[in-house]
Amino acid sequence: MAWDAFISLACTAGCTLQTLSHQLQCPRGSQTDGPNASDREGMSFDIPVLLLTWRRPDTTKQVIEALRAVSPSHLYVASDGPRSQAEARAVEATRDLISALIDWPCELRTRFIDHNQGCQLGVSSAISWFFENEEAGIILEDDCVPHPDFFTYCRALLMRYSYDTRIWCISGDN
Hints:
Blueprint (H helix, E strand, L loop, with lengths): L4 E5 L5 H11 L11 H4 L8 E5 L3 H14 L3 E6 L5 H17 L5 E6 L5 H16 L2 E6 L6 H14 L7 E4 L2
Parallel strand pairs: 1-5, 1-6, 2-3, 2-5, 3-4
Helix pairs in contact: 1-6, 3-4
């Protein structure tokens, strides 16, 4: 299985990514303060995004609101199944949010699993599903809220390194 290029968000993207994003966009010696919200307003983000969810409706809502700011044109959502009846309610609430909150024009593909695959198989099979359909993309988890500049950072680095066989992953960690 070839995962040609992917960008993974492992934890909340913050000032470190904003600084890197600014450095990628601005020539040396530039006196600007980096990308601002008006530059992102109304943009449709063209890099596919995979959102991995499970049973966290509150944080999933925050991630979807962050995604709405960039409105990705191709959005994949994978949801692992519950381990118990008690978890089934939280999983269902999370899935209901996905249907209700993704309100921008996009190609939305969902993969909702009925039974729990667990952290290892659930995540790896969702990533495989994503890359069966896309050559490159961004992977977000439901408890990692990205800063808007994270998407600018991802686009810049993916464009810069997409044909560099030494690079397999671009990660946004803070």
